[in-house]
Design brief:
43% of the residues lie in helices and 14% in strands. With 383 residues, the protein is of the alpha/beta class. It folds into two domains: 139 residues, Alpha-Beta Complex (Aspartate Aminotransferase, domain 1), CATH 3.90.1150.10; 237 residues, Type I PLP-dependent aspartate aminotransferase-like (Major domain) (Aspartate Aminotransferase, domain 2), CATH 3.40.640. The structure holds pyridoxal-5'-phosphate (PLP). Pyridoxal-5'-phosphate binds next to helix 5.
Amino acid sequence: MGNRIAQITPSVTLEITARAKALKAKGSDVVNFAAGEPDFDTPDFIKDAAIKAIENGLTKYTPASGTSELKEAVCEKFAKDNGLSYKSGQVAIGCGAKHSLYNLFQALCEEGDEVILPSPYWLSYPEMIKLAGAKPVVAETDRKSFTMRPEDLNSRITRKTKAIIINSPSNPCGAVYSKDALQKIADIAVKHNISVVSDEIYEKLIYDGLRHVSIASLNDDIYGLTFVVNGVSKSYAMTGWRIGYVAGREDLIKGISALQSHSTSNPSSISQAAALAALKSDADTVVKMAQEFEKKRNIMIDELSGASGIDCIKPMGAFYCFANISGTGMDGLTFSKKLLDEKHVAVIPGAPFGMKNYIRLSFATSVEDIKRGAERIREWVKQ
Ligand SMILES: Cc1ncc(COP(=O)(O)O)c(C=O)c1O
């Protein structure tokens, strides 16, 4: 095996998911809080657009960075939702936001560069950074809001710093950066001429009346340094369709397009047609899903509040609760394995997200399962 691949950390989440599946196959009643995707089905009007695309022969290669129609729709979305002005040439469509992020790090980083990522972080960032020849540099965050403060960022900047990752709302803890917090980060990035990778995939899943702010929209300087990554997976329940996108400096977008032309070629033509229908639709579908998630979040937080040794901060976005379980005397991995074996509840340990005394529980499941699973956890920790 080559060195580049040998340095990748295998996914702990897969181990837990495989165990949960094996238990289920044996007939056990497993409650699954491990999911990383909406439990809703893709809306019918999006499916219909895909069916029409097939019937109309949209079944051939498209340009490597996506169809001009979809890129224009993405530009319209940025203008409407984020107050950001992009031309089509500044947008590359990828096979999911994950693919867009991967290609962005490949295009952006050189051997030895450093990329700052606030902890807790989405577990794919460090691996993507390493695969681009760069070094992930973890920054502390405020323990209440899980957002990076100016001092956390300043203490990690070196001459090698190439980029800073901002993921708001975040996976795994649902942290949302305020405009003020983003402004402070933007000022530091501009002062040191450091790029910002802003992963806004959970943009639409935001609660308590909060409004999402894209760091790129704060002023022209930070706009020029930022790459905004987004997609349709989480907002439109389209995880399997694999459409994401990145917008930013034209030369880097050209580089990403060239990379795609020699690797994946274009994202699926049919999925692009479906994503176009999603982006062109009115906001109703997304708003309804977000309202449902907010209800489920409230139920999960309520249900877990009685569990001794578990301290759960209310997430402000996404669909995960990130809970400190140090009060139970276990670390996240032991907790997750034992809980699954003894109570048949699947949760994800916090270590791959950079925090070993935490677990991640997804509320993208039925209300009935949230209640059943939380009850099992309460009983188990009492014992
Ligand atoms: C923070 C974050 N960014 C990006 C992605 C990737 O999403 P996509 O399905 O569009 O590849 C995920 C998916 O879990 C995520 O949690």
